[in-house]
Amino acid sequence: SEGINVNVTLIFSRKAYDKVAEAFISGLERLSASNHSIGKVASVASFFVSRIDAAIDAFLREKLKSTTGEAERKQIESCLGKIAIANAKLAYQDYKQRFSGPRWDKLAARNAQTQRILWASTGAKDPAFRDVIYVEELVGVDTVNTIPPATFDAFRDHGQPRLSLEKGVDEAEATMNRLAGLDVSIDSITDQLLDKGLVQFAEAFDKLLRAVDSRCGCEGDFDNGTQSYKLPKAMSGEVENVVAEWKAAGNVRRLWNRDASLWTGTDEASWLGWLGITEDQLAHSDRLAEFAVEVKAEGFSHVLLLGMGGSSLCPDVLKSSFGVVSGFPELLVLDSTDPAQIETVANKVDLKNTLFIVSSKSGSTTEPNIFKQYFFERVEQLIGKEKAGLRFITVTDPGSKLQRVAERDGFRDIFHGLPSIGGRYSALSKFGMVPAAAMGIDVRRFLDRADEMAVACSACVPLEENPGAMLGIILGVACTSGRDKVTIAASPAVRGLGAWLEQLLAESTGKNGLGIVPVDREELAAPNAYGEDRIFVYVRHESLTDAEQDNAIEALEAAGQPVVRVTVTDAYDLGREFFRWEIATAVAGAVIGINPFNQPDVEASKIATRELTDAYEKMGTLPAEEPFFEDEGVQLFADANNQERLKAGLDGSESLVSYLRSHVNQLSPCDYFGLLAYIQMNHPHDVALQSIRHQVRDKFKVATVLGFGPRFLHSTGQAYKGGPNTGVFLQVTCDDAKDLAVPKQSFTFGVVKAAQARGDFQVLADRKRRALRIHLKGDLQTSLATLEATITEALSYHE
C-alpha cells in the first residue's frame, strides 16, 4: 500500500498463500485509491517446495514400517515424492483464480502486475528422485524458479523444458486426497516447516548482522567465556527447549524492540529505557567527568548518599568494591530509618565538609525526604542557610517534588534520571553514575565495560552466545521447575554485588505467587545441607579468589546441584554485571510469565506505613497493640491465624522457647526461613543474626534470608509478600535507646521505623504468610544474645 516491492518468503501452505495474495491485492487497492501509480509495484510469493517432500516422506516412511495392509501400503507409496509438486500445482491454480475476475480487472486496467509465485528450495534432497524434478514440473507463465547452481547445471545437461505446471492438476488433487486419507495433516507439517524456517532465517540474519558489527568495530572485546554453567540433565533439557522456543519466536529481538507482549502486555514497554542507557550515558559522560573534577577540587572529606532501594544499593556496591579512591572523598550510604544507624553515620562524617546526594526517582519516597530534612537542618546550623544548599545535590526524575525542593533550597546541582527506567534497573543511569563520579570512579571506563555487555546481549548475537539471555532463561527455567531459590556466592572483593542482585531479582520476579527468592550472604556448606530447590550463582574474582569458596562450589557441582559461574577481572567489571543481570532478570520474568517491572506489594507496605504515620500525626501515638505472649523483656506478636497455628504447635507450656520451636517447625522442604530485623545494621548485630539463620539452615536444610529493615522493604520485601508462599518469617523489632526528631514533622525516625515494621508485618499477614514478630526490650545486644541462645535451644528439640 506504500508502493514498496515485497518478497514474501517461507510460504509452505496454500492457506498461507491465500492470505499473502489477499494482502497484496488489498495493498494495491489502497495505493490505487490514493491516486498513486500502481504499475511499478512488483512482488513475489516465495513457495518452498522440496522441504515439503523431505518432511512428509520421512513421516510416511515411518508410517510404512508399521503398516500391514497391502492397500494402505500402496496408498502410502503413491504419495512418496509427490506431495510437494502436487501442492505447488494446486497453489498455481489458486494464483490464477486470485488474479482474474472483476476485482483484479480493475487493478489490471491501471497496469498492475500480478504477484508472481516464486518456487524456492528446488534442489532435490532425495537421491532417489530425478535431480531436476522440481524444475521440470514447475514451469509456468508468470512464475520464477530459483535454482541452485548444481541443479541448474543438471537442467542444462538433461532437463526437459515444457509448460508443465498446468499438466496433471486432477492427479495433484487426487494425490492430496490420498494423503488426507492417510490421516496426515498437511497444515500441521507446513506449520512445523515454517517454525523451523523462521529459526534458520533468524539465525542467518543474526550472523550477518554480527559480521557487519565486527567489520565496523562494534563488537568490542567481550569474552563470552566469563560465563559458564553446569546443570542437572533434566534441567539442561528444559533449558534447551526454552532456547529453541525463544529462537523460533525471535524473543530477544522482541525484547530489544520493547514488545510488551513478551511479558504480560501491560505497561512493560514504558520501563525499558535501561536498554539504551549505556550509549546515552557515554554520550553525556563529559558532564559526569566535570562533576568529578569539581568534587575533587572542593576537597570534600565525604560524600553521603541519602536514598533507599534502587537509589542506594548500586552506590553501596560501588563503595564496598572500590573503597576509597585516592584524592576523592569517601562515599557513605544511608538507607535506614533506625535512629542509632543515622546517628552512627552522622558521626562518621564531617558535616561541614560533606557533599550530600539526595537520591529518589519519584521524589516522594519517605526516607530520602526525611533524611534530607534532618541533615539539611544540621548543616544549616553549622554553616548558615545561605551556604547549606551548596552542600547538597539531587538525582531525581524531571519535574518531581524533590526537584522543586532542590530548586527552593538552592542545591548545588540537579541530575535527572530517565522516567522510563525503574529504580532497580537504574544502576547505569545517573542514580548510579553520579555517586560513582563523586567518589572518583572512572565513569567512562565503567560505562565502556557495561556497553560491551550490552553489545554481547544484543538481538543479533546467537542466543546460545548471549550471556544475559542465557542466564535469564536458566534462572526462569530453574524457577518454573521448582528451583526458585537463587543462592548468590561471590568472591570477597565483589561480595557487595549480592545486595543489589537481591533487589533486582526479588522485586522484579516475586509476584502473583511466583518468582525467584535470592539468597545472599548465606555461607556455603557441604552438599548435604541443601535440598533440590536451589540454583547457585558464583561471581568469582579472577585474581582475588577464595580457595574454600572454590572448593565448596566444585563440591556442589559434583553433587549435581545447578551452578552458574561468572568471572570478573576487577571492580570495573561490575558495569558488565549490572547490564548482564538486568537483561537476565527481564528474560527470566518472561519465562516465568510475570511483569518484571512493577512492584505491587512494595506499594502495599508503603500504604500501610503511611496509614500508621498519619494516625500518629492525629493522635500523637501509634495505634495500640497487644502482644499475645510476653516474658522477660520479650514480646511476641502475630495475627489471629498465625497465633492459632503457633499455639497448635506447642509441645508443652507456653514459653519463648516453645513458641519459637513451634514457629520454625512449620518449615517444610522447599520452604525458606526469613529473618527480618528492624535494628541497626552493624557487625555485632549481623553476627548474631547470621548465627540464627545458619542454625536454621543446618537443622532444616532450607534456604535462609536475612534482611535489615526498612532497607529490605524496597527490595526483597516484594518477593516475601508477592512471591511463592513458602516463607516462614521471624521479624525482629526493638525499643530504640535514643530517638531522633525529624525536622518540621511531628513524628520521629523511631516512629517511622516502627510504622514501617508494623506495616510490613501487616501486609505479610494479609498475604497469609507464616509470620511471627519478636520485640526485644532493654539492651539490644544482650537481647540478641538471648534470642540466639533461645533459638539454639528451640532447635535442639526438633526431630
If you had to describe this structure to a student in words, what would you say it looks like?
- With 799 residues, the protein is α/β, with parallel strands linked by helices.
- 50% of the residues lie in helices and 13% in strands.
- It is built from 31 helices and 20 strands.
- The protein has a 6-stranded mixed sheet, with helices on both faces.
- Helix 13 (285-298) runs parallel beside helix 19, helix 22 (497-509) runs parallel beside helix 24 (574-592) and helix 28 (683-700) runs parallel beside helix 31 (780-796).
Features:
single chain; 799 residues; alpha/beta; six-stranded mixed β-sheet; 31 helices; 20 strands
What structural category do the secondary elements indicate?
Answer: alpha/beta
Main beta sheet strand tally, sense and closure: 6 strands, mixed
Main β-sheet, spatial strand arrangement:
15-16-20-19-17-18
Share in β-strands: 5-15%
> What best-fitting shape do the alpha-carbon axes yield?
elongated
Number-wise, the strands total 20
Determine the number of helices (DSSP H or I, runs of at least 4 residues).
31
Low-confidence stretches: 218-222
User: Into which percent range does the helicity of residues fall?
Assistant: 40-55%
Please tell me the overall pLDDT.
93
What's the gist of this structure?
Helix content is 50%, strand content 13%. It is built from 31 helices and 20 strands. Helix 10 crosses helix 21 (467-480), helix 21 packs across helix 24 (574-592) and helix 22 (497-509) packs parallel to helix 24.
